[in-house]
Each structure stands twice: as C-alpha cells, then as structure tokens.
Amino acid sequence: MPSIEKVSTEKHEGDAMVIAYHKDHVFSGGVDGKIKIWDNDLNLMKSVDAHDAYIYALTVNHSGKLYSSSCDGFVKFMKPPYDKVEELLRSDDAIDALYCEGDILYTGDEKGLVTNWENDKLLLKYNLVEEVKSLAAEKGWIYTVRDWDVVVSELVPGKSGKYVTRTVLDGKSPLCLLGPILTDRHKYIAYPDRTGKGLVLVRNVLPERFTIAWQLADCHEMIINGICGDEKCLYSGGYDNKVKAWTDLDEKKPKALGEIDVGSCVNFLCCGNNNNVYIACSDGIIRRAKFT
C-alpha cells in the first residue's frame, strides 16, 4: 500500500514550492526565500537565506551545484557543501523555470527566452516567444510549456540561437521526461491535459511523431501542480491534496498504484532513490512517499 514514510523535521514559513534531489540530498525552496537542505530521511541539515522573495525553481547539475530562481529576479547557485550563495544573473523578467542537462544549465523566462549556460558562462539564447513555466532539455531538444501548448524544439547546431519546432501538443505545465533512455533520450514526455486535471503520456521519438501513448481524463479532482517520473512510474499531485502513481507505462492503459491524501495542497513532486517520491506542500512541510 502507498504511504507517507517520512515527514520533514521542520518546515518552511509558508508554502514549500519546489524540490530537487541529488545524491542523498533533498533541496526545497519556499515562499520564504529559503532553501532547506535535508538528508534522505528529511532531517534538516541546513537552512540558507538564498533569496529575498518567493523561490520559483531549483535544479542540480551532475557535480551537485544547486541553482535557484526567484521572483526577486535573481538566479543564484551554491556549490557543495552549500555554505555560500553566489549570483549567476539578475533579470528584469521572471525566470520561472530551470533545468540541468548534465552540467549545462537552461533557464526559461516569462517572455519565452530560453538561455543555456556552461560553467556559468552564457552560451546562447533562444526566443521561443511563449512564457516558459516548465522546462526540460535533452540531446539538443528543448521541451517547454505554458498554459496551453507543450512545444518540442530542436536546437540548430552552431552559434546562431536558431531552432526548429518539432511538435506542438495540447497540454499545460508542468511537464517531465520519464521512462527508459532510448537513443540518448527518455522514452516519454508526461504533462497534464488542458483541463489541468488529466494526464497525457507522449512517445518522445521522431519516428513515432510524438504520438500519444495514453491519456487519463479527470484523474485528479482539481488542477495538477506536480509531476515526476522514473523508468517505470509516473507520479502526479495537485490542489486536491492527493499524490497518485501509475506503472505499466507501455500498456494502452497504465496500472494505478493507488493514491495518498497528504492533507495539504501539493505544489511540487520530485523522484528520489529507491522508488521514493518527495512532496512539497502548502503547509511548508516536505514529505517522502513510497508506492511500491
């Protein structure tokens, strides 16, 4: 049976908004501007005053460098052992989304500008026009979504900042890549449908032209805020206070693994190790759940 296995020893002042996971470290960001660092069992290791306002996004690169963005306009970073906050950039536009592919950082802002960085040096900017609320990147493809469309763009090699739109799909944020990695890319993309209450799984390959593997209409009673996945499972959570899970992703209809009512609005989900899922909630608490 699915269950909450651990609950954080302390909490954010206000909503816990985002989570990232890297090598037995759990990072959470809240409306209080703090980044809290926990161990696997959600014992608080450190609390850092990272921003002066609401934290929008967190991401970690392969070497463990943690990046954060906030409505204060800053993107900042911390290196292990996470005792010093440094500034990467200050923007007049809100940077809602961050994503690390290896050691390459991608940032996405409210005007649709996606920028990639290597070793904290700006490489290229891609103007995707629509606000970027959720973002992923993999082997030259960028996945972005706002409120109505999921867009897959292929970057043109070189220093032009040009791209080719591979597909536009009906959906909304958030999105995630999941499933086994085939030819250097995850097999699937998952995101809510345009109602925000259903889920869509799409094949992330050109030969199949990003066809829909399956759809689950109204699988949540209210809007989905959080989504994450691993090789075998997809997890979702939202305003209905519930976290749900599905497996058998390759089937025409996935198998439901059950649901957990966490008693608070689910703002964000993140996969950890050993089939653990970490949950950021509106009560400021971080929870760890397991469905298998």
Layout: helices, strands, pairs:
Elements: E1 3-7, E2 16-22, E3 25-30, E4 34-38, E5 44-49, E6 55-60, E7 66-70, E8 74-78, E9 86-90, E10 95-101, E11 104-109, E12 113-118, E13 121-127, E14 134-138, E15 141-145, E16 149-155, E17 163-170, E18 176-182, E19 185-192, E20 199-203, E21 212-216, E22 224-229, E23 234-238, E24 242-247, E25 255-261, E26 266-271, E27 276-281, E28 286-290
Antiparallel strand pairs: 1-28, 2-3, 3-4, 4-5, 6-7, 7-8, 8-9, 10-11, 11-12, 12-13, 14-15, 15-16, 16-17, 18-19, 19-20, 20-21, 22-23, 23-24, 24-25, 26-27, 27-28
Provide structural commentary.
- By secondary structure, the chain is an all-beta fold.
- It has one domain: Methylamine Dehydrogenase, Chain H, CATH 2.130.10.
- Helices cover 0% and strands 57% of the residues.
- The protein is built from no helices and 28 strands.
- The chain has strands at 3-7, 16-22, 25-30, 34-38, 44-49, 55-60, 66-70, 74-78, 86-90, 95-101, 104-109, 113-118, 121-127, 134-138, 141-145, 149-155, 163-170, 176-182, 185-192, 199-203, 212-216, 224-229, 234-238, 242-247, 255-261, 266-271, 276-281, 286-290.
- The strands form 7 sheets. The protein has a 4-stranded antiparallel β-sheet with strand order 1-28-27-26, with no helix packed on it.
- It is globular.
- The chain starts with a strand and ends with a strand.
- The relative contact order is 0.14.
- The mean pLDDT is 94.
- Rg, rounded, reads 18 Å
Main sheet specs? 4 strands, antiparallel
* Helix content class: under 10%
CATH topology: Methylamine Dehydrogenase, Chain H
CATH superfamily heading: YVTN repeat-like/Quinoprotein amine dehydrogenase
Keywords: WD repeat
WD repeats: 9-39
